[in-house]
Amino acid sequence: MRIFGTAAVTALLAAAIAGLPGGHAVAAPGTGVVESVEPPAAPAVLPGSVGAQRMLYTTTTVGGAPTVASAVVYFPAGTPPAGGWPVIAWAHGTVGLGDSCAYSVAGPGAVERDWAYLGTWLEQGYAIVAADYAGLGTPGEHPYLNGMVEARNVVDAVRAASGHYSALSNKWVVVGQSQGGGAAVTTARYATEFGGPELDYRGAVATGVPAYIENTLALMGPGVPPVKLGAHTTGYALYLLNGLRTTYPELDIESLLTDSGRYWLERARTECLSPFGDELVAHGVVIGDLFTRPLADIPDLRGLLTRYLGLPESGYDRPLFLGQGLLDTDVITPETLRFAAVLGANRQPVTLKVYPTDHDGAVNDSLPDSVPFVRDLFA
Fold it and tell me: How many percent of the chain have pLDDT more than 70?
């Protein structure tokens, strides 16, 4: 058994006490400032938008460290209303970890689904600010599913865009799917605090939310699971391990892995989800075969994973809409429903709607409910 050094344990404890491991640090001065703008790559231009721009803006990453992230801003056609276009902050789902996978570079992973979805919001008269998250399309590692980092990135993207473009209002909501559903939920909890008096946060919509993923990740180790998973699920697991080592580099995650495990972990750093999933299937990769020791050997694993992956169960100050497909196997649907129940029991302002569809289907199937929900937030 490997003994974790005193320095590593001390760093973990200090981070836990300070609440910093997922990025709880107070934002560095100067965040939410546009550094440059340019036209986005053609695959990232939302059909029907006018004058789309890719912007680089200042934000933070793990531990509150300053960084620069990218986002795309989409404007509706026509003349902005008095006060500017209200803003939808779009938190996208998993695309991969490599810079070439970034939303502002390659566009959405599910093109037809996302363009239909975002196009609906555009037609409703909302501008859209789509953040890439730290480390996607810009230097540095992307701490996958680190909700606090993603929340900082989303809020700073809205602050940067609304401060830079006079056509945008400071009134906004966050909308997200899958990885972005988790990001939207964490953003919803901290949006008022992170945005400050400059922004007027109204609420959130999240579909396909990956709730209590920390409980599953904690079980990983030799022989777990004993069967092949779906291509995306295996890819998600490797992205999660990368997110864990990016958030807590002192853990030396590689020391728990076989040579094959280290190879696939490194491959995950630069691969986009769909082609990576195809390659994992072609090679018959089973997550349990990639470990020499269980993740549970890490001290305070449950606490670390909860601070890295856990979704807030209280403290929401604006309405939150959760949409979930009952046939969704990309997230653990019973856990997502449990999360909604916990929020309800905690008297949080949550609305849950379920749909007889899968992970992708819930995105657009939720629109008849989420469009009026958001409209009421701006009333």
Answer: 92
Q: How many whole angstroms separate alpha carbon 191 and alpha carbon 8?
A: 31
Residue 16 has pLDDT above 90, yes or no: no
- At residue 302, what are phi and psi to the nearest 5 degrees? -60, -40
Name residue 156's amino acid: D
Alpha helices (H) in the chain, listed in sequence order: 6-18, 103-106, 111-123, 147-164, 179-195, 213-217, 231-247, 259-268, 273-282, 301-309, 333-345, 361-365, 367-377
Q: Which of 56, 65, 81 is nearest to 22 (CA)?
A: 65
Question: What is the pLDDT confidence band of residue 30, given thresholds at 50, 70 and 90?
Answer: confident
User: Residue 26 to residues 148, 159, 199, 316: CA-CA distances in angstroms?
Assistant: 11, 16, 17, 19
42 is written with which tokens?
């053609």
Cβ neighbours of residue 283 under 8 Å, at least 6 residues apart?
Answer: none
Q: What is the mean pLDDT of the chain?
A: 92
How far is residue 7's CA from residue 252's CA, in Å, rounded to a whole number? 13
What is the C-alpha to C-alpha distance for residues 340 and 334, in angstroms, rounded to an integer? Answer: 10
Per-residue confidence (pLDDT) for residue 232, from 0 to 100: 83
Instruction: Domains for the chain: give ranges and CATH numbers.
Output: 6-16+213-307 (no CATH), 31-210+319-377 (3.40.50.1820)
Q: For 76-136, give the DSSP string.
A: -SSPPPTT-EEEEEEE----BSSGGG-HHHH--SSHHHHHHHHHHHHHTT-EEEEE--TTS
| Residues 75-125: tens digit of each pLDDT | 999 999 999 999 999 999 999 999 999 999 999 999 999 999 999 999 999
CA distance linking residue 338 with residue 336, whole number of Å: 5
Instruction: Return the pLDDT at 29.
Output: 65
pLDDT of residue 76: 98
Reading the block at residue 29, the tokens are 């001065």
Tokens found for residue 67: 């960084």
Listed in sequence order, the residues at least 6 apart from 320 whose beta carbon sits closer than 8 Å to its beta carbon are 185, 188, 203, 204, 206, 343, 348, 349, 350, 351
